[in-house]
Amino acid sequence: MTVVLNHTIVPVADKERSARLLAALLGVEAGEPAGPFVPVRVNDELTLDFDDRLGARPGHYAFLVDDVTFDVALDQARRSGLAWGSAPRTVDRQINHLGGGRGVYIRDPDGIAYEFFTTVP
């Protein structure tokens, strides 16, 4: 059997806000609440379930994306006023070019870093 990560829980302060934020970065829709979670279906195999019952915890979620999705995420970060930069914990409003592609780290208000990159370094 092939192992596939199906879902993971993302602990946040406000599950609706955080799910909408990631959905906007990815250019997808947040799902309807399901029990205590608000899901964001990342692709056919992975859903991130946002949960605010225990409060926020910083985290890091990295996404290998195509150029169109990268541009959507970067545009959303620019328009929303989120902290973003070329490296973890760096807010230089620059992208990196590791591995010949483009990469950026976008932080949400809970301290979660969403990394978007277009090629594997």
Automatic annotation (TrEMBL):
<protein>
    <recommendedName>
        <fullName>VOC domain-containing protein</fullName>
    </recommendedName>
</protein>
<dbReference type="InterPro" id="IPR037523">
    <property type="entry name" value="VOC_core"/>
</dbReference>
<feature type="domain" description="VOC">
    <location>
        <begin position="4"/>
        <end position="119"/>
    </location>
</feature>
<dbReference type="InterPro" id="IPR029068">
    <property type="entry name" value="Glyas_Bleomycin-R_OHBP_Dase"/>
</dbReference>
